[in-house]
Amino acid sequence: MKRLALLLALAAALSGLPGCSFTGISAQNLISPPAATADQQSIYRLLQGTQTEITLIYPKSGEHRSAIIMCDFTGDGVEDAIGFHATADGGSQVQFLTKSGGEWAVAALFRNPASQVDRVCFGAMPDGGQAVFIGWGTTAGTTSRLAAVNAYLYQPDGGVREYALCSYGEMAVTDFDGDGINELFTIDKSVPVPADTEGEEPTPARARLYAFDGETRLYEAASVEADNSITGYSGVTFGRLGPEDWGVVVDGATADGSMNTQVFFMEEGRLTNYPDRVNTEGYASEYARPAAAAITARDINGDGYIEIPAAIQLPGYSEGAALDSTSYMVEWRSQTSGSPSRVVMRTLMNVRENYWFRIPYYLQSKVCALNDAERRTVTYMEVKSAEEGTLLGGTLFSIRVFTRPAWESRGENSGYTLLTEQNDSVYGINVYSRDERVLRSTEDIMKSFSLLEE
Fold first, then answer.
1. Which residues contact 420 (CB under 8 A, 6 or more apart)?
2. How far is residue 242's CA from residue 337's CA, in Å, rounded to a whole number?
3. What is the pLDDT of residues 372-388, one digit of tens each?
4. Can you give the three-state secondary structure of the chain, one letter per residue?
5. Is residue 1 in some structural domain?
6. What are phi and psi of 310, to 5 degrees?
7. Which InterPro entries does this entry report, sorted A to Z (predicted)?
8. In a domain, 366, yes or no
9. What is the pTM of this model?
């Protein structure tokens, strides 16, 4: 009965996680929960120790969200385990477990005062093992909410050494030089001075890069100033920005909800931040965009490179009009090291309804989008120039999202042409204009129409 209870407890702890199963290690997901075997019992009992029961702790963000994570952190080709659980004093404990001769044993355990685990990342070490980066605490909330990342490195003598690195708001595992050995990129936020403190300056935001010095030591290889106005991060990606350029792209929001993107490169041993001159009086980021256009950087066109969005409000809106993501033309820019950015393409988007399309050259500066969110319809109106300013002309086309039953009953009969479909949503376009240039433009729109998240 006790054995069954142990199995049920651990199975419940490991189930229901995205991308996780009881099949052990896989090529697509190196880090996965253990198989439902005797290994489960051994691992759980070691975590439990002399306690009658334990409360497992799950990482809140990142790719690996299991309370027990399987990986080969020793680099010996045998699967190891890492487990998190709460301590009696309100903190957390992580245990590193190894298997030898069919028996599991605790290689090391560490306590932390934080009650939460933000995330767990893994990086390739020079000796073939896996560096384990654990973010303790939480990055959610206001400017002052920062987690702290520690590195855990397996040592040749069989132990695990803990290195306290820094506080962070976001972090990513990188490989700037392409040698197969990873670095750790972190970025924190400017921490304001408490209201009852006088004469002190806010702690400025900074990005840091940690690299390996030899086989099993980490050091801060480079750092650079980051945007002090950012109060929270919405995404970080390490990837290719050009044929020869790898960088870290960080999206963040300011206190009023507007967004900015920072791009970090390693240039001749220095960590650099684009756009440059951050936090100076003349700093004006070309990637700054309003809260209504909260769109994050991504490889929008599938060319293998990350593009960064910049938002330009469409013409034709009256002062005080309620704007959303459909109200902007988004310029997707390529940023490479040592060069100014360049526009890759221009799009119109509907983030709420998950779609975008290229805006043809003829329609640029000539169209205004009116979004009826309740009817799930965006109507694109012609914009005409007049002495008193811009005026709205006739309706050029509209894009509507139907439920599948609604499409089957009346979609095509109501003048809409199928664009694409996803799950229960069917996307259609209705072209009203008879102008040949508009018709050619809508043909291009139909060809480029895409979903943000497939």
1. 427, 449, 450, 451
2. 9
3. 999 999 999 999 987 77
4. CHHHHHHHHHHHHHCCCCCCCCCCCCCCCCCECCCCCHHHHHHHHHHHCCCCCCCECCCCCCCCCCCEEEECCCCCCCCEEEEEEECCCCCEEEEEEEEECCEEEEEEEEEECCCCEEEEEEEECCCCCEEEEEEECCCCCCCCCCEEEEEEEECCCCCEEEEEEEEECEEEEECCCCCCCCEEEEECCCECCCCCCCCCCCECCEEEEEEECCCCCEEEEEEEECCCCEEEEEEEEEEEEECCEEEEEEEEEECCCCEEEEEEEEECCEEEEECCCCCCCCCCCCCCECHHHCCCCECCCCCCCCEEEEEEECCCCCCCCCCCHHHEEEEEEECCCCCCCEEEEEEEEECCCCEEEECCHHHCCCEEEEEECCCCEEEEEEEEEECCEEEEEEEEEEEEEEEHHHHHHHHHHHCCEEEEEECCEEEEEEECCCCHHHHHHHHHHHHHCEECCC
5. no
6. -130, 140
7. Integrin_alpha_N (IPR028994)
8. yes
9. 0.87
Number of domains the chain is built from = 1
Contacts of 371 (CB under 8 A, 6+ apart): 324, 326, 327, 350, 377, 378
Does residue 446 fall inside a structural domain? Answer: yes
Residue 267's CB is within 10 A of a number of other CB atoms, namely 13
Q: What is the pLDDT of residues 326-339, one digit of tens each?
A: 999 999 999 999 99
Question: According to the per-residue pLDDT averaged within each range, which of 35-49, 104-118, 126-140 is highest?
Answer: 104-118
Helix axes 2-14, 38-48, angle to 10 degrees: 90
378, part of any domain: yes
Residue 380's domain comprises 359-453
Instruction: Retrieve residue 132's tokens.
Output: 């384990």
